[in-house]
Specification:
Length: 187
């Protein structure tokens, strides 16, 4: 009847999900073609010659799913390719995301960015400083000799001895196998 019953603001529940400096560094790492060189080589489908775009692939262990994501200030996109049948179906072994999902992502992003200036990128937050060889750090942290989890826990945990009881031999109960089909014989 033309009366607004409820109205909310999209900023009402907004909260910071990640430090902007960390997000910027991650985007920088994901947009640097040199970081992908060892695995994908230079100028793979995850690299755009005229634009800085952050990109990442993903492949499930059994090649059932392959994804590619790409983002920059203007657009964020994800493409999934996989088998929609049940868990017993998968793509061909070696169907990594970079081979099956990234070419389509590359074409899509390239099409969207046609005519867009190539210098669009995120503004570097004040707490981010550049380091050598295109590395980036949060202010005050220009060296990270080890990452969290690189060192063994202290004190060293006491090993737990687990004794597995012997199998009683009853095992699972299986349904009887179907009778074999008769083999046709020559007349």
């Amino acid at each position: 009847r033309g009366n607004v019953l409820y109205q909310t603001s999209p900023d009402q529940r907004a909260r910071l999900a990640m430090d902007p400096g960390v997000a910027y560094i991650l985007a920088q790492v994901m947009s640097d073609d040199n970081n992908r060189q060892l695995i994908f080589g230079l100028n793979s489908a995850l690299h755009w010659r005229d634009h800085q775009v952050a990109a990442k692939t993903g492949t499930s262990d059994n090649f059932k799913d392959a994804t590619s994501i790409a983002f920059m200030p203007r657009i964020a996109a994800v493409i999934w390719i996989g088998d929609i049948l049940d868990y017993t179906h998968a793509m061909v072994y070696g169907s990594d995301g970079v081979f099956v999902a990234s070419p389509g992502m590359h074409t899509f992003i390239e099409t969207v960015l046609r005519g867009v200036p190539g210098n669009e990128w995120y503004t570097k937050p004040a707490d981010v400083v550049p380091g050598p060889n295109n590395s980036w750090y949060l202010n005050g942290t220009t060296s990270i000799p080890t990452l969290p989890g690189d060192n063994p826990p202290s004190p060293t945990p006491t090993p737990v001895t687990i004794v597995v009881p012997p199998d009683p031999g009853t095992g699972p109960i299986l349904a009887p196998a179907p009778s074999p089909s008769p083999i046709p014989t020559a007349p």
